[in-house]
Amino acid sequence: MTDARGSARQEGERPARYAPGTPCWVSLMVHGLQATQEFYRALFGWEFRPGPQQLGPYVRALLDGREVAGMGVLPPDLHLPVAWTPYFASADADRTAEAVRCCGGTIGVGPLDTSDAGRLAIGSDPSGAVFGIWQAAAHTGTAVTEVPGTPAWNELITFESARTAKFYEMVFGYDEEPVVSVDLDYVTLRLDGRPVAGVYGAGSAVPRDRGPHWTTYFTVADLDDAVELVVHLGGQVLKPPREGDHGRTAAVADPEGARFSLLQQSS
């Protein structure tokens, strides 16, 4: 998250159904599901219950009984990174997947039905960043935000913002708000005037071992305590806490190397 991010706060529970193009879910694919559950249980207070098993063992994370994220075992035949992946709402996953292909992206998984929960596809943009598409049925997505332990924001780290932002605009119908600055290459993606995601052009600072990728920010009550807990639980700090216009943030990774960020929002 950069200081260019717009406020995306939505207090309390989410609407019954997300508008197409809105980030509606985040999911983590890992090798050791049980150990990963224990890490996030201790960090965010999540509990878990089984979810759709079409791609293998999968659980949904709950906070006070409400679904906030998903977590599954990375299938050995899928060449996907151990990473948090945002899913964007779609009224028609097949049509959105075709738009991804037409705009220069690729679809690696699906579209496929996940029991009665909905229909999904997993794709990548032209720079290689992986994201998901979700057509909701029984499962509409993240049920609560703006409390500690819930997703707060999704930001794409890529080589340069303009061309990549155009891809997402063509696929999901976003408007963009570029930052006019010689020091910052950043575009905020907007939907009906609301900021929904960010695209940060990092140039040569994009991690060589990871490439362009989406980063999910999770809200925490106390950033310093959360960072200390990440390290205690076997994770690592990638960028130490720093101040921003919308709160304090830190970039971290879990024990399997999945990157994410923590956000203590300004009061």
Structure overview:
The protein has 267 residues and is an alpha+beta fold. Helices cover 16% and strands 42% of the residues. It contains four helices and 16 strands. It has helices spanning 33-44, 93-102, 161-172, 223-232, and strands spanning 23-30, 47-50, 58-63, 66-73, 83-89, 106-114, 118-124, 130-136, 151-158, 175-178, 186-191, 194-201, 213-219, 236-244, 247-253, 259-265. The strands form two sheets. An eight-stranded mixed beta sheet has the order 2-3-4-1-5-8-7-6, with helices on one face. A hairpin with a 7-residue loop joins strand 10 and strand 11. The two termini are 17 Å apart.
What does the oligomeric state look like here? Answer: single chain
Extract low-pLDDT stretches.
3-11
Determine the fraction of residues in helical runs and give it as a percent range: 10-25%
Shape: globular
Distance between the termini: 17 Å
The number of strands is: 16
Q: What topology, given as strand order, has the largest sheet?
A: 2-3-4-1-5-8-7-6
> Strand count, sense and closure of the main sheet?
8 strands, mixed
Radius of gyration: 17 Å
Class from helix and strand fractions: alpha+beta
Pattern of helices and strands: EHEEEEHEEEEHEEEEHEEE
Fraction in beta strands: 35-45%
How many helix segments? 4
**Mean pLDDT rating:** 91
